[in-house]
Amino acid sequence: MTPKDRPPKMDPDILPPLRDVIARHDLGARKNLGQHFLLDLNITDKIVRGADVQPGDSVIEVGPGPGGLTRSLLRAGAFVTVVERDARCLPALKEIEQAYNDRLRITIGDALSVDETDLFRGHGTQSIKIVANLPYYVSTPLLIKWLKLRDGDQPVWGGMALMFQREVADRILAKPGAKTYGRLSVLAQAASTPSLLMHLPARAFTPPPKVESSVVLFEPKALPADLLAALERVTAAAFSQRRKMLRTTLKPIFGADTERFLSTLGVTPTERAENLTVGDFIGLSKHALVDNPTR
Questions:
Q1: Quick one: which of 79, 154, 219, 275 has the most CB atoms within 10 Å?
Q2: What pLDDT is stored for residue 246 in this prediction?
Q3: How far apart are CA 211 and CA 251, in angstroms?
Q4: What is the pLDDT of residues 190-228, one digit of tens each?
Q5: Can you tell me the distance from the alpha carbon of 175 to that of 284, in angstroms, rounded to the nearest whole number?
Q6: Secondary structure string (H, E, C) spanning the chain
Q7: Beta bridge partners of 163
């Protein structure tokens, strides 16, 4: 790279407007990558405050695009590692990297396959925070992946602030008996304490998506990794056919003992999955570990 090709060295306070960066680097959003850029720094600053990002925190951001949320994270004093699949964004991110010296690291790759714990080896901080405007098409598998990042029974992350399609956020936060209550609700609420930070209209993004979005905060919650794995199996079976009774849907897990296990927990065998609490599902999962760990 010649001196002419290198991005200019910039002070953090005089980074160019994001719309100028997008135009200069020809970063038109790509539909196949689920790109909807969030350019309003007032909103990205609010997300960072909601995530309680403190100076010295290590933060993973997935899908930074031109770097709007990245700028807010860095201004809060965090050490940021961005994971971006679209190599077109690299020049724009390099400009931010130059402005913030050694506090930004860039990884070009797929967030579904990256090892988050490796990204922060050597940073010297005790907890990792994950803050991201997620591409909608990978938001659910990424959330489940991160919920499972555990050291014993504790998550390796200290908090998450994630942007979802509003419909997905509703599922994460749903309570028993609600139409939106399902497997994702149980897994998220068993492995963390989720709460709503804000809703965002489509017009907040460039280009506007066809749906509204929501930012959900996740506080870490203790749950042994093996119990979480059992919970995945139990909820997958229980919600596989929502209108069927638990004595039928859970038979692949518990076999002939299904009704006995349900009765032991005070759950009526004719009940449906949508009416069980998160505690009920954890109780069933403990039985799955103790009485039938391999089924």
A1: 79
A2: 95
A3: 38
A4: 999 999 999 999 888 877 888 899 999 999 999 999 999
A5: 18
A6: CCCCCCCCCCCHHHCCCHHHHHHHCCCCCCHHHCCCEECCHHHHHHHHHHCCCCCCCEEEEECCCCCHHHHHHHHCCCEEEEEECCHHHHHHHHHHHHHCHHHEEEEECCCCCCCHHHHCCCCCCCCEEEEEECCHHHHHHHHHHHHCCEECCEECEEEEEEEEEHHHHHHHHCCCCCCCCCHHHHHHHHHEEEEEEEEECHHHEECCCCCCEEEEEEEECCCCHHHHHHHHHHHHHHCCCCCCCHHHHCHHHHHHHHHHHHHHCCCCCCCCHHHCCHHHHHHHHHHHHHHCCCC
A7: 133, 215
Using only C-alpha atoms, the chain has a radius of gyration, in whole angstroms, of 21
